[in-house]
Dihydrofolate reductase
Amino acid sequence: MNILCIIAAAAENNALGKDNDLLWHLPDDFKRFKSLTSGHKIIMGRKTFESFPKPLPNRTHIIITRDKNYKVKYEDCIVVHSLQEALNLVKGDPLSFIIGGGEIYKLGLKYANQMELTRVHGTFDADTFFPEFDKDKWQLTKEEYHPKDDRHEYEFTYLTYTKKQ
């Protein structure tokens, strides 16, 4: 089975980011994101792509934009103009990821069959939010709590969900 996984870090009020930036700095969550997504295709919106200083190493970036003239001068970056086009590019892959932002998560929810959600314990002022999802359609299969410490200003929990058949 091919896995299309949504991966996100969202606060308790579903806040994802503000002004095209993250709201927190969680080094262990970044490490986890890197280890899960490395070697795979990652689907994202243009604004998410532009929030990176440069493309993430060892991943193929599929960037969705409505702008037909949008170009990216990096290898391992493919520009498409719809989620459907992006999904066609990952069809045969055993594992690929949707990494944001809010609008792309919302569109991708009906196609994804797995979710890696880092729930950051707190509420934040944001302009981008993770979409509400029907908890009856998703089964929580793994949960791992991470306390606050000297490198993490907030406590958080890794939640792994699988879509029910």
Observations:
- The CA atoms of residues 4 and 111 lie 7 Å apart.
- The chain has a mean pLDDT of 96.
- The chain has four helices and eleven strands.
